[in-house]
Design a protein that fits this description.
By secondary structure, this protein is α/β, with parallel strands linked by helices. The protein contains four helices and four strands.
Length: 148
């Protein structure tokens, strides 16, 4: 079993979507986690709605600080990460978190759907578009052996 950690700043949309997708579709080979350097404290409701509509369980997903992955939690060591992926969008001026003591294995920049401004239908379409981009990238990278 390989372990992958998706990092972003807020841990409310992109990293949660990636974590849930990997845990649902690749659960036989991968265990995914997500965290943020400055978590918002809640998963964006639209992200949860999209996961639910695509029959991906949302149970247990919450916005969390990356500190829980960097230290032992209650004396129990966390899983050693095989891959660390940042999903923040440098082009939008977002500061990607830096994982202390470990190199960031990959950077997959995606726009932040939480920053979308518009009506509910347009927001939903935007979230779907970003999630589809995340899905494609994950599928492509896992098919390629996640080596690029």
């Amino acid at each position: 079993m390989k372990h992958i950690l998706f990092l972003c700043t807020g841990n409310s949309c992109r990293s949660i979507l990636a974590e849930a997708y990997v845990n649902h579709h690749y659960k036989d080979r991968w265990q995914a986690y997500s965290a943020g350097s400055k978590p918002t404290g809640a998963v964006h409701p639209m992200a949860l709605e999209i996961l639910t509509d695509r029959n991906i369980s949302i149970e247990g997903y919450h916005s969390k600080n990356w500190d829980m992955f960097g230290q032992q939690n209650s004396g129990t060591p966390m899983a050693e990460m095989d891959y660390i992926v940042t999903v923040c969008d440098n082009a939008a001026g977002e500061a990607c978190p830096i994982w202390p003591g470990h190199p960031v294995t990959h950077h997959w920049p995606f726009p932040d759907p939480a920053k979308f401004s518009g009506d509910r239908v347009s927001a939903r379409q935007y979230f779907e578009k970003i999630f589809d981009m995340i899905i494609k990238k994950i599928n492509d990278e896992i098919s390629a052996g996640l080596t690029k």
